[in-house]
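Hey, quick one: can you model this chain's 3D structure?
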Amino acid sequence: MKKTIKNLTILLAFIATFTVFAVPAKLTKVTLENTDKFTDFKISNRNSKKEAERLVKDLKNQIQKSINKNLPNNQSMHINISDVDMAGMISPMHDIREIRDSLEKSVLEFDFTLYDENGKTIKQDKVVLVEKFVDTKSLKLNRYRNTYFKYEMVMFSKWLKKTFKTM
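Sure thing. Here's the predicted structure for all 167 residues.
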């Protein structure tokens, strides 16, 4: 009986410790509307439904990670991507996306709503990010280099850091 009470006391102390130090979970919702109407949203000329689903999943995942990394713990965000123009062009010879010169541009268009811990709107805005100079050399050190959206995510991360630094 004493051993059971001792084990129960230890368990309750353990649970209480993690309850006190628990950080509220950030709620980030990322949606993409009408991806079939995006300016340039494909990685090959095949243009299959499976490929589109993979791109949507990758972009949502990368944006969600970036927001969660930069968003204060007591805030949440809903972001709706309305257009993407991926950097570079699909090469007809190799059927892959290539950046041929430094004048290639990348565009990410979205609107977002930022909420406080009570669900009250803090900020709402429509954003169009355009990166006209794509620095392909810096991608070797970039944490997004193994994603489909390596150029777009660098641009988005810069915007996110700048936006939340001022808040």
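One thing worth noting: The helical segments are 2-21, 49-70, 150-165.
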